[in-house]
Amino acid sequence: MEVPAAADPLALLQRMPMFGGVSRDALAFLRERARAVRVPAGEYFFREGDRGGSAFVLERGRALAVKAFAGGELPLLELGQGDCFGEVALLDLGTRSGSVRALEDCAALELSSRALHALSRPHLDQFALVYMNLGRELSRRLRRADERLFQAKAELGEPAVSGYEFSVD
C-alpha cells in the first residue's frame, strides 16, 4: 500500500533523529536544496563502493540495505517511509559501505553534503545541531554494533577484545 505524501512537506524531516530540534526555517532551507529522487523497484539508490557525499530520506516505498557477501547480497535492514540512509557519507565523504536497493517503487529526498554545509551560512546553530544529531545517531548504532559483536564473539568462545574492535566510553 502506498503511503500518501504528508500534507506538511517538513513533517517527515521533523520526525527524523537527524533533524530533531531543528527549526522549520532550517528544514525548509534544506528541503529546497534537496534533490527529489525516484528509484524503481529492483534498482539501487547506490551500490557498495560507490563514492558517497549524500544521504537519502525515504518519502515513499520500501528499500533494503544489503552488504556484498560470498558472491551475493546479505540483507541488513529493511527501510520504509521516513527512514534515512547513507548519512555516514555526510561525515566522511568516503565510499559506500553497503548498497540500498528499492523493494518497490520509491521516492526519496537526496541531501548532499554541499546542501548541508550551505546551511552553516544562514543558520550556523542549526547546522551544528544537525551534526550533533548525526553524531548521536551514529553513536547509538556503534553501541548496538559493539554489543552484537561482543555477543557473537562470546558465543564463538573468542576473546572479547583484540585491538580496537570495540568502543568503550
What are the defining features of this structure?
169 residues; 8 strands; Jelly Rolls; alpha+beta
Q: What does this protein structure show overall?
A:
- With 169 residues, the protein is of the alpha+beta class.
- It has one domain: Jelly Rolls (Sandwich).
- Helices cover 34% and strands 25% of the residues.
- It is built from five helices and eight strands.
- The strands form two sheets. The protein has a four-stranded antiparallel beta sheet with strand order 1-8-3-6.
- The longest helix has 33 residues.
- 26% of the residues are buried.
Task: List strands and helices in order, with pairings.
Blueprint: H1 11-14, H2 24-33, E1 35-39, E2 44-46, E3 54-60, E4 63-69, E5 72-79, E6 84-85, H3 88-92, E7 99-102, E8 106-112, H4 113-118, H5 124-156
Antiparallel strand pairs: 1-8, 2-7, 3-6, 3-8, 4-5, 4-7
